[in-house]
Amino acid sequence: MTDEPEYDYVIVGGGTAGCVLAARLTEDPDCRVCVIEGGPSDVGDERILRLRNWINLLGSEFDYGYTTVEQPRGNSHILHSRARVLGGCSSHNTVISFLPLPEDLDDWVDRGCTGWGPDVLLPYRHRLQNRIVPVADKDRNPIARDFVTAAASALGVPVIEDFNARPFAEGAGFFSLAYEPESNRRSSASVAYLHPVLDRPNLTLRLETWAYGLLPDGDGRLTRVQVRQSDGTTATVRAARDMLLCAGAIDTPRLLLLSGVGPAQQLRDLGIEVRADVPGVGENLLDHPESVIVWETHGPLPPNSAMDSDAGLFLRRAPRGPRPDLMFHFYQVPFTVNTERLGHPAIEHGVCMTPNVPRARSVGRMWLADADPTRQPCLDFRYFTDPEGYDEKTIVDGLGIAREVAAAAPLRDWLKREVAPGPDIRTDAELSAYGRKAAHTVYHPAGTCRMGADDDPLAVLDPQLRVRGVSGVRVVDASLFPTMPTINPMLTVLLAAERAVDLIKGTRQPGEAR
């Protein structure tokens, strides 16, 4: 054990949250921090740094590429991309940047997450170091502009210039992105937080290093992590204070389960020694499911764009609801990975809309297939299985509403024909069957180590982000979400990480009373 390098904090996962923690904690020159990241650096790698290349990262060497178990009411062929690179999903996704809506955080407080309401969490927006701006004028493609105009006129919703200026219930407009419009460079968590401080002597990055087990120290605290290094050798790294798990909503619960923290009987059945019976580890698997409707355009589109999905639409189908209950991304490229598999034609030039369910009621779970740490875990999102059929109805409504927008000027003048599902698919039953088979993910898994009250039997974390039943471990990533935010969650993860820094340090939060 004397050979084990020791740091004040060990961060497992150099992703969106891990980069924030590493940068903030090492502001104290006496605080030694080690980041364990399974992927390579993004520094100087244009494949990662150029935002518009994001779609080429899916299924690449930078993607862990998780799959699901059979989805009887959904699509069983979805590749759940998880980033394998410094910066995590903020180095891999479209960096669409929405502040969480206040009601989303009220839901968290209602679930027992004291100190996580909008009055506390939203003021952290002023600490974010990412450059977050609406899509620049030069990147606003004419067809995307016409989509926004058509959606607003057809549906009677406002055009929103900045979705982060104030909470909204509905509207169409260009998204805010974490990027540098001048260069199309990402302003990811790694770019914004880590790149400027890589020379700090108290910061150690161990890249291409994969964590596969937590071990106790002499006092029984789980502050030692077993890792496999890039050359295949193994080592153990120790945290003098806390082990901070930031590996994401799949790999954080996976690491806890492999370490004997989870549902006791499941662990015993796999031959894993039980360190703590924590039934909620791996439960509450959340996502934003979406479907797709595709049109062929009359010809090639103008080339300018930030990342080919620059604009969108939020709708409130329940007129009195304070939040949207239906969202669309508008793609300036034909996203046909699922529709071609169903027999719909491939097209060279086209666009699509992707209706998605902002707060899906279907909830899944993840678990270990066996005790082999190299084997991928089992993911069952249970898409479209909520008893009331709410998620399914949302997709059916979304496909119909997308057609309304496509039929409105000036967007309709760009469109040659609908290729998927095609104009012959009209009834709710037909739209449901197509919509579920063509369904995809917005790559937002969350909730698998949810935070909650002491009397919540499936809460893995307390509101201080400490793992129940063990000591020395906190979780800081999207797995802490008790419920899914309405919007794309990257900023919610960044805000949660900034909040976690204050919890770890024991300092007062900007939204808390003195």
TrEMBL record:
Pfam families: GMC_oxred_C, GMC_oxred_N. Its cofactor is FAD. FAD binds at V85. Keywords: FAD, Flavoprotein. Residues 248-262 form the Glucose-methanol-choline oxidoreductase N-terminal domain. InterPro entries: FAD/NAD-bd_sf, GMC_OxRdtase, GMC_OxRdtase_N, GMC_OxRtase_C. It comes from the Bacteria. GO terms for molecular function: flavin adenine dinucleotide binding; oxidoreductase activity, acting on CH-OH group of donors. Transmembrane segments: none annotated. Belongs to the GMC oxidoreductase family. This is Oxidoreductase. It comes from Streptomyces avermitilis (strain ATCC 31267 / DSM 46492 / JCM 5070 / NBRC 14893 / NCIMB 12804 / NRRL 8165 / MA-4680).
